Amino acid sequence: MIYQTDMYEGVLAETITMTGANGGQINAYFARPLGPGPFPAMVLAHHMPGWDEWYREAAFRFAHHGYATLSPNLYFRAGHGTPEDVAAKVRADGGLPDDQAVGDLAGAMHYLRALPYVNGKVGIFGTCSGGRHAYLTACRAPGFNAIVDCWGGGVVMGKDQLSANSPVAPIEYTKDLACPVLGLFGEEDGHPTPEQVKQHEAELKKHGKNYEFHMYPEAGHGFFYYHRPMYRQAQAVDGWQKIFPFLEKYLGISA
Amino acid sequence: MCTMIVEKVKVDGSGKGVSGWFALQQANVSYDHPFDAPLEHALNIDFVNESQGPSARVAVELSERAARELVKTILAVLDKAEAGGHLA
């Protein structure tokens, strides 16, 4: 939806508590449009640098575009401190257990589905490790209607990369995916490499899945991040312009 | 986490974090995304004391070249100290 200058708009954004993996309570950032709805909804899977300011801004952005948006703190169990300090602890532990991330993100989807003002459609978005977690969750937890995977590294994994935290490569779950995928990637990214993106695409094609992949030239990993040197303005603008029509097509728009 | 390349080593000594000095317990060495260094991946060292929570951390993020130079320099300094009889 393109806002007109004479429209009312408002967003409520706050920290809430929700039920995540194994029934555990975690905190989450919830941003939603004001009004009776119904609104489509989005779950955001934050990136490796943590549950940080960029993800709060992204949540607000989706809410501004009409989505009730929930960004769970996937690092809740690592303790509390600045987002960087907490993310450094998770980095030292080799990342999140996949089952825990899937449980938390599925919990966010169920939270949104139970809200009276949500239209029954829930998508999931993630960047970096969050893109991987978003894809994994959409494959393993029924109930998502669309996924946006932004340069999710580690969807394709060699056997030597599997670990106790990540015992199965997400690509192996592709056959179970039940919603359309939008993938945004950079040609200069080393994680995922363009070759890995091709393998991912081939797997989606093999199983007859609904997907739309875009590979941006002169862009590497994290080209949306305006606060990092990998930011690529034109590619980032185009990427966002791909995301919102995709979501509108599969999740609808707010009433 | 994107590369997942990380090693932990027990250390003793002190580190100065945002709340002042604290006893170090461990160094976490990773080659992964840095938070601040203008690099896609960096050699990150977090000197931590997990018993004091995630905020007990002194962080550095180095380019590969800087990290290799630092390792050489630390060893050179220790060699000199040893040669001078200071490590006894």
Instruction: Name the poorly predicted regions of chain B.
Output: none
Low-confidence stretches of chain A: none
Quaternary organisation: heterodimer
N→C terminal distance of chain B: 41 Å
Total count of helical runs of at least 4 residues of chain A: 6
Strand content of chain B: 35-45%
Would you tell me which CATH topology of chain A applies?
A: Rossmann fold
Mean residue pLDDT of chain A: 96
Major β-sheet annotation of chain A: 8 strands, mixed
- The secondary structure category of chain B is alpha+beta
Please tell me about this protein's structure:
The complex is a heterodimer of chains A (255) and B (88). By secondary structure, chain A is of the alpha/beta class. Chain A has a single domain, classed as Alpha/Beta hydrolase fold, catalytic domain (Rossmann fold, 3-Layer(aba) Sandwich), CATH 3.40.50. Chain A contains 6 helices and 8 strands; from the N terminus they run E-E-E-H-E-H-H-E-H-E-E-H-E-H. Chain A has an 8-stranded mixed β-sheet with strand order 1-2-4-3-5-6-7-8, with helices on both faces. In chain A, strand 7, helix 5 and strand 8 form a beta-alpha-beta unit. The longest helix of chain A is centred in the C-terminal third of the chain and has 19 residues. Chain B is an alpha+beta fold and 88 residues long. Chain B has a domain of 59 residues. In chain B, strands 1-4-5-6 form a 4-stranded antiparallel β-sheet. The longest helix of chain B is centred in the last third of the chain and has 20 residues. The radius of gyration of chain B is 15 Å and the shape is globular. The mean pLDDT of chain B is 95. At the A-B interface, helix 2 of A face strand 4 and strand 5 of B.
Q: What are the main properties of this structure?
A:
heterodimer, A: 255 residues, alpha/beta, Rossmann fold, 8-stranded mixed β-sheet, 22% strand, globular, B: 88 residues, alpha+beta, 4-stranded antiparallel β-sheet, two-stranded antiparallel ribbon, 6 strands, 23% helix
